[in-house]
Hints:
This protein is of the alpha/beta class.
Amino acid sequence: xxxxxxxxxxxxxxxxxxxxxxxxxxxxxxxxxxxxxxxxxxxxxxxxxxxxxxxxxxxxxxxxxxxxxxxxxxxxxxxxxxxxxxxxxxxxxxxxxxxxxxxxxxxxxxxxxxxxxxxxxxxxxxxxxxxxxxxxxxxxxxxxxxxxxxxxxxxxxxxxxxxxxxxxxxxxxxxx
Length: 176
Ligand SMILES: Cc1cc2nc3c(=O)[nH]c(=O)nc-3n(C[C@H](O)[C@H](O)[C@H](O)COP(=O)(O)O)c2cc1C
C-alpha cells in the first residue's frame, strides 16, 4: 500500500524540538512526512536528525516544479500564537501559511497543537482564532495531554517539560 503524505508544519516554539520524534512516529504509522518549518522554527531544527525527510523552506520560483505531493493530512506541531492568528485570518504571505490556508480551504484533515504562554494566550485573538479554526474543522489538541475539549496555555518556565511529555500519538491517532 502506498504511504499517505503528511505535512508537518513546525512553528517557532519549544515543542519544535520534538520534530525528529514526529517524523519517526509518522513513518512508523504509514505516513510519508514532509517538514514545513516557519523561519522562526529553524533554530530548533538545526541539531535534529530528520533522516531523509524533505524539509521545505522558502517559496518556490515560478519555474520550479511543486516540491511536495498533495497532503492527505496536516499536523501543526507546535502552533505559535503568531501562526494561529495569521492562519485564522487567512494570511498567506509565507510558504507555511500558504500551505495551512490551502489545507483549510480544501478541507484536508488537520490537527494543530497551540503552544503559547499565558501572556500571549490572554490576548483576545487567542480564543477568537482557535474558534475560527475549530469551526473550520481543525482538531485542536492541548499540548499537555492531547485533549480536544480545552486548550490550556503553557505555564512560563515549563515549555521544555511540556515538550518532553508531549506524545506524537496524540496527533497521529487523530489523523489515522
Ligand atoms: C526561545 C523562544 C521561545 C518561544 N516560545 C514561544 C511559544 O511557546 N509560543 C509562541 O507563540 N511563541 C514563542 N516564541 C515566539 C515566536 O517564535 C515568535 O512569535 C515568532 O515570530 C513565531 O513565528 P512563526 O509563527 O512563524 O513560527 C518563542 C521565541 C523564542 C526565541
